[in-house]
Write a structure and sequence with these properties.
about 220 residues, alpha/beta, Glycerol-3-phosphate (1)-acyltransferase, 8 helices, about 20% strand
């Protein structure tokens, strides 16, 4: 069996290198955080919090989200090769990763996420990942919030200077020394329901709130 470059990408040594590189890179960013206190107070008093964002935003939040490691937070990540890299970095940042997505292992991953959210009180979910379509909130975030009796907190990232990828979601990475803003939205609490129409109205409500924060690739 021949050597494959992808074998390197799966090693703990490469994950450690990538984590250290991202930490160094992120240390150059000038990060401003807005509207964090309300949900942190709610979490401190015993409430359960499910943070959520668009796939294109998550890189910008990696550095700041290390501050939550004492809460033993959880994050669902796909079983893809890209997901393997992200999981390696997330674990070293103090986040417990649950592997699965809507296309593979989703039901079991969702159950584990709910269990950990009930136990530890904090989790995060990428609402349109890992394959999109961009700007469409998938059902999983609503299902998790219902099952764990958690509030949903959307958060968004922006940068004054960034590289945008030609990917399905225009994923962006702030350029070195960029000013990065991480903003948390208001707490959203949905009443659990078994009615499909009511469930869909909740999903669309969250989607309408989050859609305006999608970032578009800047044209020269």
């Amino acid at each position: 069996m021949g050597f494959k470059f992808t074998d390197i990408l799966r090693t703990k040594q490469f994950h450690s290198f990538l984590y250290r590189f991202i930490r160094f890179y992120s240390s150059t960013l000038r990060i401003k955080v807005e509207n964090e206190k309300e949900w942190m107070d709610y979490l401190y008093k015993g409430g359960r919090v499910l943070l959520c964002t668009w796939h294109q935003h998550f890189f910008s939040a990696i550095r700041h989200f290390q501050n939550y490691r004492d809460y033993k937070p959880s994050l669902m990540i796909s079983k893809s090769n890209d997901g393997e890299l992200i999981a390696g970095v997330a674990e070293r940042s103090g986040w417990h990763t649950v592997r699965g997505s809507s296309s593979k292992g989703g039901k079991e991953a969702l159950r584990k996420m709910v269990d950990r959210l009930r136990q530890h009180g904090l989790a995060c979910h990428i609402v349109d990942g890992p394959r999109g379509p961009a700007g469409q909130v998938k059902a999983g975030v609503i299902q998790m919030a219902h099952a764990a009796d958690a509030v949903i907190i959307p958060f968004y990232a922006s940068a004054d200077r960034a590289w945008y990828f030609n990917s399905w979601d225009n994923f962006f990475i702030p350029k070195p020394f960029a000013r990065v803003n991480i903003s948390f939205g208001a707490m959203i609490k949905f009443t659990p329901t078994k009615d499909p129409d009511t469930f869909e109205s909740q999903r669309l409500y969250l989607e309408r709130i989050m859609i305006p924060e999608m970032r578009e690739k800047r044209r020269k």
